[in-house]
């Protein structure tokens, strides 16, 4: 564990990403304390520029809502959707990939054909259809992102399990008569966890971008403030009030950049041999 943290800390990008993500998480957790009340309520006159009023450092929007309050509460939605949808995608993709890679044959063919079917459909279009069918809400958005995100996980796990399936310790477990479920859970998957962790960090970033895109198009939860909604609502007044789309856009860029930096650093820390080859 010490070696892992040493390798992770040696990557400046990973440390910077971790600090940036920590700031976003702290803002999201303390949003009700920093900005009590609903971020939807009118608090000042519309189109108040940033830094003109100390109580509204980022200004107000088209109906007088506090932009800073919207950013803080929107962070909660973005992180919640990103984390939960990624977890759901992992819960779908890992078992499918593990079963396909371990058993092979017709099981592999059947599961991979299902995976390929989901990959042939454009993920953003499929997410729009799912959200439209179930009505826009945090639950439907999270479900849609999970549905379009699990195929790459399944393929990654399948490839790792296929290579680990031929290892001596797995063959020894098979000869001992251990059930396949126990071999997969105790012998195979623990040795495939490193690439899964790296992919998960990148999937959270992709999920945040996808949720923001859906909210931008008006398919976000109407009861929850989100960064994508703030940008979408400000697109008609971008010349009149540049800050309404600028600050939510910066928040999305910082969060996604932080997660990508963390993912790259995790890849170097968990796979030091690959890091040496690249250098």
Short description:
This protein is mainly alpha-helical.
Tell me about this structure:
With 279 residues, the chain is mainly α. 74% of the residues lie in helices and 0% in strands. The chain is built from 13 helices and no strands. Helix 2 packs across helix 12 (243-270) and helix 4 packs parallel to helix 7. The protein is elongated. Mean pLDDT is 90; it is low at 275-279.
Task: Kindly list the characteristics that best describe this protein.
single chain, 279 residues, mainly alpha, 13 helices, 74% helix, 0% strand, elongated, disordered C terminus
Ordered list of secondary-structure elements with their pairings:
Elements (H helix, E strand, L loop, with lengths): L1 H8 L2 H18 L1 H4 L32 H37 L1 H16 L2 H12 L3 H27 L3 H8 L4 H9 L4 H24 L10 H8 L8 H28 L1 H7 L1
Helix pairs in contact: 1-12, 2-4, 2-12, 4-5, 4-7, 4-10, 5-7, 6-7, 7-10, 8-9, 10-11, 10-12, 11-12, 12-13
